Amino acid sequence: MTNNQDERIAKMTFASVYPHYLAKVQKKGRTAEELHQVIEWLTAFDKKRLAQLIEEKATFEVFFQQATIHPNADLIKGVICGYRVEEIANPLTQQVRYLDRLVDELAKGRKMDKILRVK
């Protein structure tokens, strides 16, 4: 990834992407509650805090600065947007791609305990 891509991702607002996440999972028969559960697992943001961040139009940079990333997030592996998430060097870009990967897994019908890396 180039620095331009990293900067573009950092400046993107979570509020602009969230409706796409929601539409993607709902189109595949999953619920908003399941999406929120996945987001909360990764970031520790409850539904109320998530709504505040959307309302504030927080950038991904601010969003992930305020997040408490789950200790098992490094167990998220796979390819998203042509890149292996475990090999992305920029920490913010990697965290955004972690979220993208979890949303993809949810949309593909993966079981919640697998998505949330329950051992």
UniProtKB/TrEMBL annotation:
Pfam families hit by this protein: DUF2200 (PF09966)
InterPro entries recorded: SP1917_dom_sf, UCP033199
UniProt superkingdom: Bacteria
Protein name: DUF2200 domain-containing protein
